[in-house]
Amino acid sequence: MEKIETFKILVLGSLASSFILSGCTSETDNRVPEISVKKIEDKEDGNDRIPQEEARDIELQSKTFFSEHEMSTITLLANIIIPDNDNSGSIIDAEVPEFIEFIAKDIPNHQIPLRDGLRWLDHESNRRFKKLFQDSSKEQQLEIVDDIAYPDDIKPGFQQGTVFFSRLRNLVATGYFTSKIGVEYLGYLGNTPNVWNGVPQDVPDKYDEKNFIPIIKPEERNDIMNWDNF
Length: 230
Fold this sequence. Notes:
By secondary structure, this protein is mainly alpha-helical. The chain is about 45% helix and about 0% strand. The chain is built from 8 helices and no strands. Residues about 20-40 have low confidence and may be disordered.
């Protein structure tokens, strides 16, 4: 089974529990801080965020946390976690690296674990191959990832790398499957309105027409029902 199919099953099974990222934060992480701002005019994009939320987004987007080297390593790891495939868009198309950058600024509790984890990764790659992780070959990169990808089987000396990779994997999966591309791949419709074509015709055929409520046809859904004979 492809990695993305495995993630799809896991995500569909967790939609009822406020998604993957919720397990990485505490209740206080999601509080919107007090920010003194002027009223922001309504935009045409239809968002209904309060001015404080919009101001916070603008403030966070104006800052940069990860260096170019760190972002390229995150992108590389994200591609390993959810590789490109023919059935859905890539993590680049879904803007997963940008999502992780934003989350690190929005939820500062992620900053030290992610940055230290990236440093650990480069240190481990340099120890083994005398190269930074992103400069190593694909086979060398996967060799390290295989040693830290299984939290239930942590090898001695690899605890920090395993904890880091689990955190990043959760962020990558959350970023991908909450993007437009990821939601479309899941086939998740949520509260999308649809059309009910009614019960099969053989069912009302068994009853007296007077005692059977007419089936609403799609083309008549805006008509007002006449209940005089019921």
